[in-house]
Amino acid sequence: MSIQHLEEKIAGDLKWNKVEDIPDFPLANFDEVKRGVEANKFSLGIDFTTSNQLAQWLYGQGHKYFFLILASTPIIVAILSIILAIVLSNYWLLAGIVLGFIGQLMSNPYNPAKNFWKPVVGILFLVFLYGLWQGKETMTYLSAFFVFPFFINNYIYRMNQGKLERVALQSEKIFIYLFQSGKLGLRDNATGQSHWHSENPQSETRPHSSPDPSCGREISRGRANPKPQTNCFALPSPFY
């Protein structure tokens, strides 16, 4: 689906036609938004779930299958661990059935302990390299069964979020649609204040470190505290 097609789908749902029509928005127009982000004066915050939902439409049908393959990494790891355990007669490798799913779960951006697991995964990656170098079979496979699903799942979220950010900066209509839905926000990098729209009469403005009451979000060029919430964003019906 092209950006133009997506714009046509959402046109009837837009609350505002231009960024300058948005009440209490921190920038005067869409050009200022693009210049501010490009100059790193402002950062975009993108909801992870929304970026995953829209990615298959924005990337095309081929990406949908690529996404499904990557998202199926824990299943692939589980099957591979069973095969290797039988072929190598090393039944410690059956732990990979669980490790793949744990690795994927720990990399989820909604996981509050994700930042704790990042250095742990870094250490496990070094363990993987050491085991590979020393020919230590169990050490190599078990560390890989956890590390690679973690890395791949994290890559999927970042890839989709980055794509949606680029699209939002190309299309004022998509930017407004995401902002009015509470799935895109703007942070002033100088003051640390974040601007998100809520259903209240005024746009929501708060310090970046303040709790975020809506769906999981992350400032693309900074840190954030995403909050999990399911089914909080509805795409236009033609998308289903």
Q: What does this entry look like structurally?
A:
With 240 residues, the chain is of the alpha+beta class. It has 2 domains: 3-57 and 166-239, no CATH class; 65-159, no CATH class. 55% of the residues lie in helices and 9% in strands. It is built from 9 helices and 5 strands, in the order ααβαααααααββββ. The chain has helices spanning 3-10, 30-38, 48-59, 61-71, 73-88, 96-106, 114-134, 137-170, 172-180, and strands at residues 42-47, 184-188, 193-196, 204-207, 217-219. β3 (193-196) and β4 form a beta hairpin. α3 crosses α4 and α3 (48-59) crosses α8. The longest helix has 34 residues, at 137-170. The radius of gyration is 21 Å and the shape is elongated.
Features:
elongated; alpha+beta; 240 residues; disordered C terminus; 2 domains
**Which percent bin holds the helix content?**
40-55%
Domain count: the total is 2
- Strand fraction: 5-15%
Gap between N and C termini, in Å? 13 Å
Mean of the pLDDT scores? 78
**Shape call:** elongated
